[in-house]
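Before our next group meeting I need something from you. Please put the record directly below this note.
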Amino acid sequence: MAYDLIVIGSGPGGYFCAIRAAQLGMKVAVVEKDKTFGGTCLNIGCIPSKALLHASHLYDEAGHLFDRMGIKVGNPKLDLPGMMKFKDEGVAGNVKGVAFLFKKNKIDTFQGTGRIAAGGKVEVTSAGRKSETLEAKAIVIATGSDVARLPGIEIDEKRIVSSTGALVLSTVPKRLLVIGAGVIGLELGSVWRRLGSDVVAVEFLDRILPGMDNEVCRQVQRILEKQGMTFRLSTKVTAIDPSSQPLKVKIARSSDGGGAETVEADVVLVAVGRVPYTAALGLETLGVKQDNKGRVLVDQYFATNVAGIYAIGDVIAGPMLAHKAEDEGVAVAEILAGQAGHVNYDVIPNVVYTFPEIASVGKSEEELKQSGIDYRAGKFPFTANGRAKINLETEGMVKILADAGSDRVLGVHIVGADAGNMIAEAAVAMEFGAAAEDIARTCHPHPTLSEAVREAALAVDKRAINM
């Protein structure tokens, strides 16, 4: 069969790419190795984790906050199988939605492992080992990423789990040890802490959430510690005895291996990041260049060094975020159609769905200092926001960083309830090159949490009203 475009992978990057290409009049095929569409995000990542974060947050609120608001429900009872069913139903709905969109846009789908046999040819091998070869003018690699593993620690997805296994635990572990205090570790650690686990996060570095604004991370750590999570920073896991019950985990200082000790855990979650997934694609045989981290090298048009082969999403450089992959999928489809596809990597929001949420877009203070950029910072705490007060959601703040000369917004960081939605305002403002004053002079509805964004913009010029 001959196509204009074959997309390998049906995650956010892949299915956005396929749909946009179909909208532009291309004949498109999608190859997916798993039984369902949607990739890691919809099946074992973003969607199921947010379902559990939402449900566990409501459970936690019912047990600790409802009484303060005059709602008498008694101690909530956890039905973990019921919560998992709720999660699975949400996943199924999203996955079916992608399948529907493929049909709606007349995109052919092939279930099986895709291998690029040669330029313009993709060999698809189904679970039954039946193979067929598809032909296309262009091939886009959108195969996403896989769990990063630690040497000497075998993940069995039962007691030593990755994020995949942490989403399907059948009982609440009494003690959960999380290796890694990044996004995945904090989110899934939050889920199980709310449901009753004693959670300890072991982080190799001296801080949580590497790469995010330091002031934000310090505040978030204090909040999560107040909620009951424990952090062991500048610490590494050196070994786990899988034969012991409970698990015996050896830890030591990450700097010199000193201070060794053994701690016990019922479940260990390995959350040390993700790596590009390029297995079985045949890239080495084709001569497609990759960097030392296994990422596919592409130019500004997402083209590899082999004609007709492109790559997007987690398999190329940049933040491993679903929305970044989506934008790249749309951009490469438009480029293939002769349009000017483009992604503004300076305005890619990042959200951590703990409670409170953590959201950022643009530069951190550390990045601005390192670049020698003169800036001004405006900060506004949610303790001074009327809606946050009545909602009992006063943890956190908004911080806006603006160029000292032009006042152009360079970065926005939010710790607070609904930060993931509020950061979109900042992203739109930055996309249009807004100044802090532009946000400050834009009328915001009252009473809302979003007023804190306006107040932070006012604070850049030292004229916040409610502080």
Summary: The longest helix spans residues 80-104. The chain has a mean pLDDT of 97. The CA atoms of residues 51 and 87 lie 5 Å apart.
